[in-house]
Specification:
The chain is 57% helix and 13% strand. By secondary structure, the protein is of the alpha/beta class. A 5-stranded parallel beta sheet has the order 2-1-3-4-5, sandwiched between helices. Helix 1 (14-26) links the parallel strand 1 (5-10) and strand 2 (31-34). Helix 6 crosses helix 7, helix 6 crosses helix 8 and helix 7 crosses helix 8. The two termini are 29 Å apart.
Length: 202
Amino acid sequence: MSSDAMVHIIDDDDAVRDSLSFLLSSVKIPAATYASATAFLGALTKDAAGCVVTDIRMPEMTGLELLQRLNDDGFKLPVIVVTGHADVPLAVEAMKLGAADFLEKPFDEDSLLAAIRAALGRQRHDGERESQQARVRSLIATLSAREKQVLDGLVAGQPNKTIAFDLGISPRTVEIYRANVMTKMQAGSLSELVRMAMVAAG
């Protein structure tokens, strides 16, 4: 399965899969179709990107069970659940499990495309944030134990004198550590340093 963003359509109804695939190809959104959740999971790789559109009622594994499985396995793919009118309580349950959206049948094409585009946009944003988070954490890992203590003090909004008192060192030494932290973290200002620390904390 490609790491390129793709819409993964899961439905046990051949006609539904074909019509959704045709709709997405008409607006140049790549799609792959699966007759069951187990078939999808069998093709899923760790670098899979995009979003999932799944019916909630399917044999073998339901849409809810698929959501739970994706959560358990650590996948971040946004999931759009398609439900019948009587299945709204199930859709609410799906939202609690982290579904990005749900659509009631019959839905119009514009609603589906809007939900898919929002889900793809959300995954891009999440991916960028995770990449940024990993970068900041790798920078923090280069700090010494004392530099991390100074960073903690700065993020807590403490002035140099307070940090110095808490650590039992001179304010001048704190200034040196602070300069080292700014350099190692590649931060241009204290506000940028604080933002980076908040990103790392998640």
